[in-house]
Amino acid sequence: MTTSSEQPRPRTSPAALSQPALSLLQRKDVIGSIARSWTTSYIPDYLGLVLLFLLFIPVNLFLTPFHRLFVLSDLRISYPFAEHERVPPLMLITYGLFVPLGVVTAWALLARPDRHKVRVTYLGLVSSVFLTTLITDIIKNAVGRPRPDLLARCKARAGTPTDILVDYTVCTQTRLHMLQDGWRSFPSGHSSFSFAGLGFMSLWIAGQFHVLRPTTSLLAMIASLVPALGAGLIAISRCEDARHDVEDVVCGSLLGIAIAWLCYRRYYPGLRSRGCDVPYPPRGEMVKREMKKAGVDSEGDKEDEESTIGFVVGEEEESEDERERLGLLGRGGTAQRAGRGANT
Questions:
Q1: How confident is the model at residue 256 (pLDDT cuts 50, 70, 90)?
Q2: Domain residue ranges of the chain, discontinuous segments joined by +
Q3: Which of 151, 170, 318, 343 measures 20 to 30 Å from 211, CA to CA?
């Protein structure tokens, strides 16, 4: 992994700002100040995390799932209920969220990267987990697919016909949450959650080690795959506990991977990029460059400027620096040869 003093220059281009946006950012009143703070800072990201958390509470506590009809003779939902799960919810949160957070924290303390890099890494990880959890719970309640152990949860009344479709009213289960959760099979929450956190960690480690470079060692690639392997084992355990079918686990895993990739790419370039270990520059810097390019004056943000020292954006700047360096070397070499000629 590279520290801030060794970071290569990422080749990124800020998104073009529309003329109304430029005009709004140029305003000197309160509205302009708010617009600049909103556009050039990460306040919207923090507010988004708060919103996701606030939405998760009612979705998880108050929404009831759609109760799909079922048949008591259906062997696919006749598995026994596992009282002790291989990966209980608390352990899932530990593996999928707290372990990646611990790894990032240890890296921040030991490698001493710049503050911006630490900030966006935390934001990407937490937003991946929160967004995945909310989307998974919404889909679970909307689909209402019975779990493989639904009949063990339901405890249907004696005498209920076994060869016709029945609904949840035939159930005698008194533990309401246990019964309602029997219709939240698709997609697997354990699978999506684990891949949202550990999958993000795999992407991040892969970027820090440049695993797609031919010169990268096999050990670095293995290190990047370990979190994903752990997420896969968690997903497999859901089939072993008869909490989910294979389809639930596969779709949940794909959902977690997709959102992890989306959240990672919001802050870091692709793994094939030469500077994949360096996040995109702070938004303030990108907006200022775009405004400068458009000939619009912007109020400088000293903190953002100091936090992005060493970042040079754009291939033209890189090539210009390289040409200048080669030119200096060439002149130096010519001077040395001239000196040796004079001595002889």
A1: very high
A2: 42-267
A3: 318
